[in-house]
Amino acid sequence: MNFQTYLNYFEDILSQENPTHPYDNPDYFNYTKLNWSRMNRWLKHGVLTTEIKEAVSRITTPQNWMIITEPWCGDASHVVPFLQMISSLNPLIKVDYELRDQEPFHINDYLTNGGKAIPKLIIRDEKGEDLATWGPRPVDCQVLYSRLTAEKADFETVKIALQKWYNENQGKDILDEILQILNSINQKQIDAVI
After folding, report:
1. In this predicted model, what pLDDT tens digit does every residue of 80-135 receive, in sequence order?
2. Element (H, E) at 181
3. Which structural domain range is residue 11 located in?
4. For the chain, how long is the longest CA-to-CA vector?
5. Which terminus of the chain is more exposed, N or C, with fewer CB under 10 A?
6. CATH code where residue 65 lies
């Protein structure tokens, strides 16, 4: 699905009188409502760096980006808007949004430490070969998450800590890490021509 279809799907969940599983759980539903607000805030106020814009402008061959996500995912509400803003800068980037919990279940090929952690970005060339993968969250945020889970922190504590991290970071680490990936892909393509 494209980004607009994903937004429509997301919004449809929030407008249902009797949402389906897992959104029939009030905690999931309310968290998803928060995610909708967070995502839209980043789409309106997130700022891309000059460096990421320049790297995207240097893409000269088609790329296919698969973004595996779900509306209930807190990390996705912070990450997906930046991925969408980046990908929209170059018409050579085609993006397909996939839901983790629905077919075709590509997440099974991109597990993180054996788990189906999302969001996940897979960048492929026009032949369908993987060029890079990224996710589910920036490295420093993952370190925080891993520490909290090792300490057996409850979900509410983890949720608040990650939210605070994303708010303070303002997308900087997402942009820096995607920049490194794009620069690496661009350099490999230059080296292949030489």
Report:
1. 999 999 999 999 999 999 999 999 999 999 999 899 999 999 999 999 999 999 99
2. helix 172-193
3. 3-193
4. 59
5. C
6. 3.40.30.10
